[in-house]
Write a structure and sequence with these properties.
This protein has 85 residues and is of the alpha+beta class. The chain has one domain. The chain has a 3-stranded antiparallel β-sheet, covered by helices on one side. A two-stranded antiparallel sheet has the order 4-5. β1 and β2 form a beta hairpin. The protein is globular and about 30 Å long.
């Protein structure tokens, strides 16, 4: 499932990735020193878990026909998108 999230995230954030503003590796989406784990949505800084100061702007919701937890994918997108603005 994390692999699927990575694929979706690479499409959603194609432009910022191409610009070097964020990176997507095997397990994380990274914006500067803030990695977000693709499997759990956990945000860390220097290895320590943190709560992002950015309130997600959209409602979290699961869509049963997707092969992954849409609420988690939405949270990751919201957090990373908040860092980019």
């Amino acid at each position: 499932m994390a692999r699927h999230r990575r694929q979706v995230l690479s499409l959603v954030f194609a432009e910022p990735v191409a610009q070097g503003r964020i990176t997507i590796d095997e397990r994380h989406v990274r914006a500067d020193a803030w990695p977000v784990h693709c499997a759990t949505g956990r945000v860390t800084r220097d290895g320590e878990p943190v709560e992002p100061a950015i309130a997600p702007p959209s409602l979290l919701r699961a869509v049963p026909w997707l092969p992954c937890d849409e609420a988690l994918l939405q949270r990751i997108v919201d957090v990373v998108a908040g860092w980019l603005h």
